[in-house]
Specification:
Elements (H helix, E strand, L loop, with lengths): L2 H7 L2 H11 L2 E2 H10 L7 H13 L3 E6 L8 E6 L1 H25 L6
Antiparallel strand pairs: 1-3, 2-3
């Protein structure tokens, strides 16, 4: 696993939770959204275990929706109140961390 993948692994939970907070989504749809927003390294294989972990932690709920036409039902995920709280907490931590890292990389001071 390369360095970029390791960095992404640490924030994938937060990114998926943020996407689900925007609107309920299914796994493949979330993978496409992540890629469209610049996270090219995310594979479907890393999304599904993360979604399962978020569900087991009580941060999202999964439910099935029948596919239009043919095909199996899709499992969608929606955020629940503890997930909203956790996302707000993680977002604040991320902002602090990224500001500190940016200050170090730019040779400045953290405000």
């Amino acid at each position: 696993m390369d360095h970029n993948s390791q960095l992404l692994k640490g924030v994938l939970d937060m990114c998926l939770l943020s996407l689900i907070a925007e609107e309920p989504s299914y796994g493949y749809e979330m993978a496409a959204k992540l890629k469209n927003r610049g996270l090219q390294l995310v594979s479907d294989g890393s999304i599904y275990p993360t979604l399962s972990r978020l569900q087991k932690a009580g941060l999202v709920e999964g439910y099935f929706v029948e596919a239009d036409g043919s095909g199996p039902p899709r499992k969608y995920y929606r955020i629940v109140d503890p997930g909203r709280d956790r996302l707000q907490e993680w977002s604040g931590e991320w902002m602090d961390l990224s500001a500190g890292v940016s200050a170090i990389l730019n040779g400045g001071e953290y405000d």
